[in-house]
C-alpha cells in the first residue's frame, strides 16, 4: 500500500525523464494514479511502462504540443502531434467546459494522439461545472463484425458524465465484453480469463490472457454491441482520425513501439439548462439519481472517489509486479 502523493511523484518523474515537459507530465501522472484510486488498475500505472517503452522506441512524442487546427468558438480541433493522450484529452475536456458555458454546447477533438487511459476521467471537468459530457476514443482493432474473423474495431470505449447531486453519475465502458486493459492485467498476473471474453488469433475461444491479447474480443451484447462500437469508431476514428482502428499499432506489441498510434478522441460538452423545456433539468437529473438509489440501485460511478475528495495521503493499492516494473524503469532512465 502506498499513497496518491508518492505514486504521482514517481509517475511524474518517469514521464519527465522520458522527455515530457513538467505540466503535461504532472497531469498525465495524476490521471494514471486516479485510475488506480478508482480501482481501474488496467488503465492506471500498469500502462506506464508501455508508454515509456513507446517514448523510447519513437512511437510517442514526449515533446508534443497541441496545435489548434480549427476554432469556430463552439468547436475546436487539435493536432496532438503523437503525444500521450492523457493530458491532451484533459485539455480538450477543459476547453469544452469553457466553450459550453459560453455557447451552451461544445465539441473538442484531438487527432494524431495516443492512448488516453480511462475515459471516465475526462468527464470530471464538465460534471464539476454542472455540465454533461460525452467522450469517445479508439485504439487497435480487436473486434470483428458478428459472424466474421477480421478485427475491424477497437474496444470502442465511451464515457458520459451527468452532474446529478449529491454526486455525479459517470458512465465508462468498453463496447467489447471486457476492456482490453483487463485482459492485459490478467496476462501480467498469469490468471485465466472468463469464458466468452475473447478468442485467439485463429478465432478459437480462449481463456488464455496472452493468447487473447493477440486475438480478438467479443462485442458487448452481440450485434447490438457491434453497432454501438461502430458508432464510436465513426465518431472518434472516422470523424477525427487520422487512423481507423485497423491501422492503429498495438501498444502491447513491443515490435510496434516505433510506430505512432494516430488515435482520435472526441469530447462533447453541453449545458442541460439550454435544452430543458421548462428550466428544470438539474431538478430532474437529481431526481433520476435519487430514484435509482431509492429503488436499491446504484448510479453509475457511485463508488469512484472524486478528485476533490482525494489528498496526497489517500492510500492506493497497486500490484507488486507494477511496483517492481516502475522501479526497474527508474533505474533504467537514470543510466
TrEMBL record:
MF terms in GO: oxidoreductase activity
Domain of life: Bacteria
Keyword Oxidoreductase attached: yes
Pfam family, any one: Ldh_2
Keywords: Oxidoreductase
SUPFAM superfamilies found in the cross-reference section: L-sulfolactate dehydrogenase-like (SSF89733)
Keyword Cytoplasm: no
Homology family: Belongs to the LDH2/MDH2 oxidoreductase family.
Protein's name in the database: Ldh family oxidoreductase
Organism of provenance: Phytoactinopolyspora halophila
Amino acid at each position: 500500500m502506498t499513497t496518491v502523493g508518492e505514486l504521482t511523484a514517481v509517475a511524474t518523474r518517469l514521464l519527465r525523464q522520458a522527455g515530457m515537459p513538467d505540466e503535461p507530465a504532472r497531469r498525465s501522472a495524476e490521471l494514471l494514479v486516479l485510475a488506480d484510486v478508482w480501482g481501474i488498475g488496467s488503465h492506471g500505472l500498469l500502462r506506464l511502462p508501455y508508454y515509456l517503452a513507446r517514448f523510447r522506441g519513437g512511437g510517442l512524442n514526449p515533446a508534443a504540443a497541441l496545435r489548434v487546427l480549427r476554432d469556430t468558438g463552439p468547436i475546436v480541433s487539435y493536432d496532438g502531434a503523437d503525444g500521450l493522450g492523457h493530458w491532451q484529452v484533459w485539455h480538450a475536456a477543459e476547453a469544452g467546459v469553457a466553450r459550453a458555458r459560453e455557447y451552451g454546447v461544445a465539441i473538442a477533438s484531438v487527432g494524431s494522439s495516443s492512448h488516453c487511459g480511462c475515459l471516465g476521467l475526462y468527464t470530471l471537468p464538465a460534471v464539476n461545472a454542472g455540465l454533461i459530457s460525452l467522450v469517445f476514443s479508439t485504439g487497435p482493432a480487436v473486434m470483428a463484425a458478428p459472424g466474421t474473423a477480421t478485427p475491424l474495431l477497437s474496444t470502442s470505449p465511451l464515457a458520459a458524465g451527468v452532474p446529478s447531486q449529491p454526486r455525479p453519475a459517470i458512465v465508462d465502458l468498453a463496447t467489447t465484453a471486457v476492456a482490453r486493459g483487463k485482459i492485459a492485467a490478467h496476462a501480467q498476473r498469469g490468471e485465466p480469463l472468463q469464458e466468452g471474453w475473447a478468442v485467439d488469433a485463429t478465432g478459437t475461444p480462449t481463456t488464455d490472457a496472452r493468447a487473447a491479447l493477440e486475438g480478438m474480443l467479443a462485442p458487448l451484447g452481440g450485434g447490438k454491441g457491434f453497432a454501438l462500437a461502430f458508432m464510436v469508431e465513426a465518431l472518434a476514428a472516422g470523424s477525427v482520425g487520422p487512423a481507423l482502428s485497423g491501422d492503429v499499432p498495438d501498444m502491447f506489441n513491443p515490435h510496434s513501439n516505433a510506430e505512432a498510434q494516430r488515435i482520435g478522441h472526441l469530447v462533447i460538452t453541453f449545458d442541460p439548462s439550454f435544452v430543458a423545456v421548462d428550466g428544470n433539468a438539474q431538478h430532474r437529473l437529481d431526481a433520476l439519481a435519487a430514484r435509482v438509489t431509492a429503488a436499491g440501485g446504484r448510479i453509475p460511478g457511485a463508488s469512484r472517489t472524486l478528485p476533490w475528495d482525494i489528498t496526497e495521503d489517500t492510500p492506493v493499492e497497486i500490484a507488486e509486479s507494477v511496483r517492481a516494473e516502475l522501479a526497474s524503469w527508474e533505474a533504467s532512465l537514470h543510466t
